[in-house]
């Protein structure tokens, strides 16, 4: 059993849980994830690790209430226990000194990207973060994101100072300026549609673009193949070869998007990103 | 099922008369196909006491123990059957347990027809003793008695061993070494112990209560079972060796699914057998929504492959409500690696078989869901040097069949999580770990066995390899004079 030590509501239907899991805290790296099971009859659900405290032995993750499991999680607090908690799974995000890094964030990515931003900052990168949210109310982690980003662009559906309606517009502007203010790398942890669009936008400019993919997973250790996708002609498992992939090498985005939604109507996944106009909805 | 003979005849002591040859091999009672198509309860319900006695009395107690030689772990088959003939089930159980730690499992899933029963003298007459069914009867009897008869435990050796993986191979080594006085910590990546026995083999073939009991038994022996712990992630193999453990046994199985590498394989509703079976069995999707994990299944299901895993996938599909389930296999019935009994069970349950067919593409319905399969007809070549007849496609014979669900069951290979983080552990091109007949690997103080070494075999062979490795490990641990064995050179 794994004890929950803290529960914070970050925004409406957005929560952060801290779980006592010293073995995971010990080795967690930016971009990795955990899989948890709430109780004996629960499903295995993956969550990106949004922070950890090695000394206290705790691991944090942020989730959006969507399906049965996340609704259940939202009711848990200190003193409650999770039946199972395993990780850190997946490969860590690649971190180095790149220069100017643009990050695209939405949904739980606002929190889950924080460890990556922190590591990038330690490598002296200049960071521009584009945040997408449906409205101001559903923005969170603003303080940390402001502190870690040299520039912050908000895309919350209303125009204003430092604001545009959509993240793609913001990215287009930055890319338009690429010759004067070069973008050395794009890292996206946001809706799959946005990651796909961003990858297509940066392709002609050959700007390395990394996307954090979260297909449906079951075991999370490379055993079931539920999370497979085609990368440069080869079958890859997001849980062991990812979840970070080169967006220009990912093939079959349509299939990837459809597979992600296979179980959406069964309310299984924390499909944090529900996209408007998606054929699967 | 044949009739039970006059009960008085059963009471006669076995040695009274020279046994007459009785070729009436007793079938096990089974749920009717029409019923079992709709539930996940065990198909075969097992012998009654009378049936077990009658079957046991058919045994001729041959001097030459051919059956025993046919058993991968050399169970003293004539002896346990002899005990049964005497009506001493407790003794039969004791005999069984000296060679197998998992009789309730092996009695159900072992391919006896190519092992012990194949070598039975009465097999020449087409009616071998139903050794597996008797084994199962004894194990079930023991289980019904509640509690465990604990073996004699050796005093503590002060040595600590890590066992990685909790399938049949790992469970065997854990219990063998615990009994010999070593402190055992067993690591399991999943949230339940049992390996393929819990995530792969369905409830209707192997009730999970049986596996749970075996795991409980291992825990009563003092084995410290740590679930949710992935070696290669939480601890590397070198960390285990450089830390508290004197020796390590690797039994992580062959969990990595193979795919066909044909167009359309990643379409929606195309599953690996591992995913399909894990959802259904480990996560209990057949009880959704009481259990939170769903499994989606369409009306027409194709299962690609001809092994036990394919049979299990097909039979789960039937039970989950598919209207038509077809097994697609590129060779013929004769080459199918699945157990004959399971093929027959599948057929009785309405599964259809398409032999000499190979999928060449999966087609989309336009919304990235699978809707059809393109197949090519195959023919078998003349036997090559190894005597094997290879399937080759017949050009121009492509056809298309409609399917809305596809389960790919082409076998598995070992998960590279440990080997990729342990450069000095020798592996083959297929990803299996190289080990000698005692399970010793290329790396000091590390043994391995089960599917991780064989690449995918049987429960009994995984157990047998565990047995042999445990013996070798025990010898090593007992000879190590120094308390602390110097760690192998750091490799990080
Ligand atoms: C569906 C199906 C049906 C089958 N039917 C039969 C049958 O009828 N008869 C028969 O004899 N055989 C059958 N087999 C084969 C048989 O189940 C296997 O040969 C046997 O289970 C192998 O045992 P094992 O202990 O080597 O590995 P496994 O049973 O695979 O156990 C390995 C365990 O190690 C764990 N693990 C893996 N990696 C790690 C890690 N890095 N850290 C910690 N833990 C890890 C896994 O989660 C797993 O629990 C079947 C197999 C399948 C899949
Ligand atoms: S989640 Fe099963 S292989 Fe990735």
Structural class of chain B: alpha/beta
Counting DSSP H or I runs of 4 or more residues, the number of helices of chain B is: 18
- Provide the CATH architecture of the largest domain in chain A: 3-Layer(aba) Sandwich
Taking the alpha carbons of the first and last residues of chain B, their distance comes to 62 Å
From the alpha-carbon coordinates, what is the Rg of chain B to the nearest angstrom? 24 Å
Structural category of chain A: alpha/beta
Q: Low-confidence spans of chain B: pLDDT under 50, at least 5 residues?
A: 1-5, 7-12, 481-487
Strand content of chain B: 5-15%
Q: What portion of residues of chain B is helical?
A: 25-40%
> What's the number of structural domains of chain B?
3
Strand content of chain A: 25-35%
What does this 3D model show about the protein?
- The complex is a heterodimer of chains A (281) and B (492).
- With 281 residues, chain A is of the alpha/beta class.
- Chain A has 2 domains: 2-89, Translation factors (Elongation Factor Tu (Ef-tu), domain 3, Beta Barrel), CATH 2.40.30.10; 100-261, Rossmann fold (3-Layer(aba) Sandwich).
- Chain A has 9 helices and 17 strands.
- Chain A has helices spanning 22-27, 68-74, 109-112, 114-122, 142-148, 167-176, 192-202, 238-241, 253-260; strands spanning 2-11, 14-20, 33-37, 45-53, 58-64, 81-82, 84-89, 100-106, 126-132, 151-155, 163-164, 185-189, 209-212, 228-231, 234-237, 244-246, 250-251.
- Chain A has a 7-stranded antiparallel β-sheet with strand order 6-1-2-5-4-3-7.
- In chain A, helix 6 (167-176) runs parallel beside helix 7.
- The longest helix of chain A is centred in the C-terminal third of the chain and has 11 residues, at 192-202.
- Mean pLDDT of chain A is 88; it is low at 267-281.
- Chain B has 492 residues and is α/β, with parallel strands linked by helices.
- Chain B has 3 domains: 22-145, Alpha-helical ferredoxin (Fumarate Reductase Iron-sulfur Protein, Chain B, domain 2), CATH 1.10.1060.10; 160-255 and 413-477, FAD/NAD(P)-binding domain (3-Layer(bba) Sandwich); 259-410, FAD/NAD(P)-binding domain (3-Layer(bba) Sandwich), CATH 3.50.50.
- Helices cover 32% and strands 14% of the residues of chain B.
- Chain B has 18 helices and 16 strands.
- Chain B has helices spanning 7-11, 33-36, 49-57, 66-70, 77-85, 89-99, 103-109, 116-119, 131-144, 168-179, 196-199, 208-220, 237-242, 273-282, 308-319, 340-348, 451-454, 459-479; strands spanning 160-164, 183-187, 224-226, 247-250, 256-257, 270-272, 300-304, 324-328, 352-354, 357-364, 370-380, 391-393, 399-402, 405-408, 412-413, 446-448.
- A 5-stranded parallel β-sheet of chain B has the order 3-2-1-4-16. In chain B, strands 6-14-7-8-9 form a 5-stranded parallel β-sheet. In chain B, strands 10, 11, 12 and 13 form a 4-stranded antiparallel β-sheet that branches.
- In chain B, helix 16 (340-348) links the parallel strand 8 (324-328) and strand 9.
- In chain B, helix 5 (77-85) runs antiparallel to helix 6 and helix 6 crosses helix 9.
- The longest helix of chain B has 21 residues, at 459-479.
- Chain B is globular.
- The A-B interface holds A 23-24, 27, 37, 41-44, 68-69, 83-89, 218-219, 221-226, 228-230, 235, 240, 252, 254-256, 258-259, 262-263, 266, 268, 279-280 and B 189-191, 199, 227-230, 233-234, 255-257, 259, 261, 265-269, 271-272, 274-275, 278-279, 283-284, 288-294, 296, 367-369, 415-417.
- Residues 217-220, 222-227, 237, 239 of chain A line the site of FE2/S2 (inorganic) cluster (FES).
